[in-house]
Specification:
The complex is a heterodimer.
Chain A (H helix, E strand, L loop, with lengths): L2 H12 L5 H13 L1 H18 L10 H11 L9 H28 E3 L5 E3 L4 E3 L16
Antiparallel strand pairs in A: 1-2, 2-3
Helix pairs in contact in A: 1-2, 1-3, 2-3
Chain B lengths: L1 H8 L3 H27 L2 H17 L10 H22 L27 H4 L6 H8 L2 H12 L4 H8 L3 H22 L11
The chains are: A mainly alpha, B mainly alpha.
């Protein structure tokens, strides 16, 4: 690693944001190079200085003043995301088509027998439906 | 996104206000410090933080409660701060010595020091490091403050600034160089910067 590469990586090295092999490469360069070592020292002094700046407190009552303003603020109306609306419309359309097909298919192929059982015309087989009795809904019968 | 929307939509206004108030109360000290470091001026910091919270409440239904509130607040604050600085830089400056074409126009300027509460309301941080921060480019300053004052990782900063980790790395590197150059000129030796060059 040359000085230019090392100096470009010193900030990230200081912040421990380099990959392991890069950390090792920068460290071994800094140990051999006085100018990069000095550069790293100065960056470290800056970082330490910034981290030790005193916390500046807000004035007393600031949060209350903010909340007073917030209470007068109108939140943006909650809107349904566009993709949610599209997904809902598509689902409704698909359901409608399925119900329609079910109704058409059911009337074409089955009818209620006198005893409340469904009768499959194609197979001439009566299918008893004890749950619905004589009010059994029309449901297509699969083969 | 959908879960956030469903959660927000299910709350009454009072419930939203109550939750928001708790979050403001828990975050305002830390957020105020961040605003001070970005602006270096108490009045500007208050304006920035106030606008940040107002905007946060306006879009509160978009807040994902699984994420830290301060990160979301920082995101809004840094966007506002960078926009404000850019807008300010675009403003055309006119000398107060300049008069109109007829030579009679004068500027009626308020005396900023006349207000009794001026000193209470506005004070600037004179700490050289703070002045150095103020002299930096807004994007660089924001990245450096988030890293060194707030102690965020590059990934967290990238999330707050809505950019890539590579860009954050570059902004911090260049920002620290800017800051060091400022300190080197204004107070050599104070931050051990003089022995480098």
């Amino acid at each position: 690693m040359n000085c230019q590469n090392a100096q470009n990586s010193l900030s990230a090295y200081l912040d421990r944001e380099l990959a392991g092999d890069q950390m090792i490469a920068v460290r071994s360069h800094v140990e051999r190079c006085a100018s990069c070592e000095a550069e790293l020292g100065s960056l470290r002094a800056l970082k330490t200085g910034l981290a030790s700046l005193p916390v500046v407190e807000p004035r007393e009552g600031f949060a209350d003043d903010v909340m007073r303003l917030v209470r007068n603020e109108k939140p943006e109306p909650v809107r349904v995301p566009v993709f949610a609306m599209v997904a809902t419309s598509v689902a409704a359309a698909v359901l409608a088509v399925l119900l329609f097909n079910a109704f058409i298919g059911g009337t074409d192929r089955t009818h209620l027998a006198d005893d409340g059982a469904r009768f499959d015309e194609a197979s001439d087989v009566a299918v008893t439906n004890p749950d619905f009795g004589s009010h059994a809904p029309l449901i297509p019968v699969g083969r | 996104m959908i879960a956030t929307w469903i959660k927000s939509a299910g709350r009454t206004k009072e419930e939203r206000l109550e939750l928001f108030e708790r979050l403001v109360s828990a975050s305002n000290r830390q957020a105020h410090n961040m605003a001070m470091r970005l602006t270096a001026n108490s009045a500007e910091a208050e304006d920035l933080l106030q606008e940040t919270y107002l905007r946060a409440f306006r879009f509160f239904h978009r807040y994902d409660e699984n994420l830290p509130f301060t990160s979301w607040i920082y995101r809004i604050m840094t966007n506002l701060h960078i926009d404000t600085v850019r807008r300010r830089n675009r403003l055309k400056t006119v000398s107060i010595e300049q008069t109109g074409s007829d030579g009679n126009q004068t500027w009626d300027l308020p005396d900023q020091k006349a207000a009794a509460d001026c000193e209470v309301m506005t004070y600037a941080l004179e700490e050289p490091l703070q002045l150095g921060l103020r002299a930096m480019t807004a994007e660089f300053r924001t990245a450096v403050v988030l890293a060194d004052v707030e102690g965020l990782s590059y990934e967290e900063i990238a999330e707050v600034m809505q950019t890539s980790v590579g860009t954050v790395r570059s902004r911090i590197h260049r920002g620290r160089k800017q800051l060091r150059e400022y300190l080197d000129k204004s107070c050599p030796g104070r931050y051990e910067v003089n022995f480098l060059q």
